[in-house]
Specification:
This protein is an alpha+beta fold. It folds into 2 domains: 2-68 and 234-272, no CATH class; 72-230, no CATH class. The protein has helices spanning 2-24, 236-272; strands at residues 34-42, 55-65, 72-74, 81-84, 88-91, 103-105, 111-112, 118-119, 127-132, 135-136, 142-143, 157-162, 167-172, 177-183, 185-187, 195-198, 201-203, 212-214, 223-226, 228-230. Strands 9, 10, 11, 12, 13 and 14 form a 6-stranded antiparallel β-sheet that branches. The protein has a 4-stranded antiparallel β-sheet with strand order 6-5-15-18, with no helix packed on it. A two-stranded antiparallel ribbon has the order 1-2. α1 packs antiparallel against α2 (236-272). The chain starts with a helix and ends with a helix.
Length: 273
Amino acid sequence: MMRTSLTGLQAASKTLNVVSNNLANGATTAFKRSVAQFEDMRIGDTASRPQSQVGQGALTIEVQRQTQQGALEASNSSLDIAISGGGYFVLGSGNANGDATYSYSRAGKLSIGKNGDLVNAEGMPVTGYQTLLGNVTSSVPMPLNFSSAAGGNLGNIKSVSIDGSGRVSIARNDGSVAAVGTLAMANFSNEGALKQQSGTILKETDRSGPAMFSSPGRNGMGVINQGNLESTNVDITQELLSMVTAQQAYNGNSRALQTESEMLRSVTETLVK
């Protein structure tokens, strides 16, 4: 009996941790809420009553990310972009051999780094496919760099344009236009199983399956909305209700565990006498 109450405490504690993380990221761009999932722990059929099963408490199966799209909110930066539909931005250094380790995110608050790379809010390079005369010149996601298009001087960039298909170009101060590249995107057979590395940065897992790369608007990928950011899909009211429910479950199991402990102590003292 004490074990059953203990598993209830552990399940309620796990739920509280998950809900707390959701609430803490209630204003984080493109953050996806998570839900702790549980199942009943049961022992095998008893010999005397073959049709009966005895409950042994709750077992945490996994913490599942909820991938529903967040609302798009307009911003005042041309380097703020949002994905409308499926897919993730691909982050990392990349290499021509195709054996790079990437990270993934839907947060599109971007900027141009000192070395000319397009980077996210954490300073990680945003990858894409370099272009030459409008044609894609690589099949491996590599950091998108503005230096060449800007003639070696980032100060020559007057404005940046990113269309729905992920094509990135700049307008120079002299009025000319130059292509930078095309954003890379990735999707997964089980995107809910991606592992949260930090904030909105995700890593693939065995359960998520390998990344399938493409570009916006192709092969099931969403399109790009420049001048927008995707908001979180966290519903504060729903999370607060979940927190209250989990807290009640925690308190209930805690009282049951305390009562069982007192009963055990009383029986022990009686036997000793």
